[in-house]
Amino acid sequence: MSRLAVDIGGTFTDVVLETGGELVTSKVLTTSNDPAQGVLEGVEVVLAQTQVAAADIGLVLHGTTLATNALIERRGAKTALLSTHGHRDVLEMAFENRFEQYDVNIDRPVPLVPRHWRRDVWERIAADGQILRPLDIPAMLNCVDELVGEGVKSLAIGFLHSYQNPEHEMAAAKAITDRYPDLALSCSADVCPEIREYERFSTTVANAYVKPLMAEYLSSLDVQLKDRGIVCQTLLMTSGGGLTTLDAARAYPIRLVESGPAGGAMLAADIAKRYELDSILSFDMGGTTAKICLIDEGTPLYSRAFEVDRSYRFKKGSGLPVRIPVVEMVEIGAGGGSIAHVDGLKRLLVGPESAGSEPGPACYGRGGEEATVTDADVVLGRLSAAHFAGGKIELDAAASAEVISRDVGTALSQNMHEAAYAVSEIVEENMASAARAHASEWGRDLQSRTMVAFGGAAPLHAVSLARKLRISSVVIPPGAGVGSAIGFLLAPVKFEVVRSDLVRLNDLQVGKIEPMLADMRNEAGMIVTSAGFGQTLVEQISAYMRYLGQGYEVAVEVDDGQLDPLTLRERFETVYAGLYGRTIPEMDIEVLSWTLSLASEQAQTEIRSATTHESERKEGPLGAIAGFDGERRRDVPVYLRSTLSSEPKMGPALVVEAQTCIVVPEDISFCQDSYGALHLEEAER
Q: Does residue 613 register a pLDDT over 60?
């Protein structure tokens, strides 16, 4: 069965067709006004390169930044919030803290719902689930009538303590649907049934905000693919590293945030297992952002907390919090399209603003007039014009030279090559700082890791970044330029359900927890089996636990049937000690929430690049390109990746393939194994 994987990024849309284990890839510029057009363009390219007919494609796997961009750019639907009387300002009060202590003019995230569309509803449920005040349905419907009259298209319902008792939210949803069947609804008891009102309301509002847009896009894409002859099922990549159905994606579009980077983490995890690497650093750099993820024993770090649209240069606490299953990673505005400029203090700054796909870097010849990282790479001889984006985009080296000299060189009194090298150094230092901070937060070491680099821009900067982090080994997987899309092919169908039930460990009743887990298992199972993957499922249960009095909890993986307090305590103390180096003897422990996920078995796909006429060339350099390494200019030999063998060579070199280039500095050895992965190692001195 042929499978099609599509990843829409901020700059490029990557398309991968897998047939018989071979990959045919395409990278096209993202069409921001209608992302589906870029998808179809990429599909046409890969189908034209194979004998596969559209009707022969058996499965489409898709990840998109559309939900993320809608939240960041505030392009979602007109959304309202119904909340318990007296609590409509929860979204505005947030955590009531200062994420930037010394900024007297601090800018807090602006709520997605303006205050005049946040309405009080007369009802009240206690923290234990008891109904204190019945829901006033007639008064609630009057509020909804006013909101619809004002043009509201989507409605979030978030009542106090609905994670304990969803009765009022369900009753409100039924009454509203009966009156307004076309109004998009998101109930917090469905979207995020967890303790903590602000995060629950924020997540539900974000889901409601993007729900109409995503529903329209997913339906349109499905129709256009079918019109093209691709009539198979489409599965969506989620932020938690699993695939889900179109119906689930329409209901919970907030889970599609960060779907592309999650696919990259799945690829890196597969590399770790394939080469039996205990600890790796996943490095994904595209046109807009760079993502760094820690993967130990073949498994990425996971979390249930994420922030969208951080307003303070990606500073924690300055964004909109959402509670969804997510692969834990650090993401910064450092991509090929990141804009470089010199401020009034003569400081060179790179990103987080990006030129994106429209107009893109100056070298794209699409009207870009600002210096970017990609322009610096062109000046430094790190990109082959003949192979960039498979030859689909003709690079304008003169335009890159002009903007680098004007925007950076003149301001810093440097020549063109020195200015370009400075841009590269700054963006790499930004990424190195982010990696160090991320590892420190999780108590992990970096130097003992192997770096796995992918994405259109990562192989250009991987070795330099690795050196800054004192990492001596780098692996570039096959098809690295479209790595996240390849990760979709390796991901399982997966769905996670969460329930909050605050209880002290000594008071935990297994007889109460087991029925709750059974309900969660049924809910997750219905979605996974509806995708046609219900034969053999892998179950994972986690308890979120903390010492009494603490503000945050840790995830503790548990086994069904071993839920007794003594076992839970032992597992919690093991996890806690691993994170903080100690435990707190005789301190009470409490459980806040439970998660249960069901996943199909991991795809066992032997992926290799499709054979082309280029691979029939004999091994050896194609020619040379003028490069600058920060000290001197010299000619660097250029190799086709498809011709490389297991015989080690020494840098400097530039290895080119259809969707990216690999920069091999001096004193680095490189060779390619039978799987197609390129290994770069520091030469022994």
A: no
Sign of dihedral through CA atoms 334, 340, 343, 346? positive
Per residue, what are the HEC states of 273-294? HHCCCCEEEEEEECCCCEEEEE
* Residue 649 to residue 669: CA distance in whole angstroms: 5
Reference 26, options 456, 326, 313, 424; nearest CA is 456
Task: Pick 367 or 315 by higher pLDDT.
Answer: 367
pLDDT at 180: 96
Instruction: Name the CATH superfamily, with its identifier, for domain 2-71+215-256.
Output: ATPase, nucleotide binding domain (3.30.420.40)
CATH code for the structural domain at 494-600: 3.30.1490
Q: End-to-end alpha-carbon separation of the chain, Å?
A: 49
579 has pLDDT over 90: no
C-alpha 317: how far from its chain's center? 18
Q: Tell me phi and psi for residue 138, to 5 degrees.
A: -60, -45
Report d(CA 389, CA 395) in Å as an integer. 10
Q: Where are the domains of the chain?
A: 2-71+215-256, 494-600
Burial of 535 (0-12, 13-18, 19+ CB in 10 A): exposed
The answer for residues whose C-beta is within 8 angstroms of residue 172's C-beta and 6 or more apart is: 82, 121, 135, 137, 140, 157, 159, 187
Rounded-to-integer distance, Cα 598 and Cα 325, Å: 13
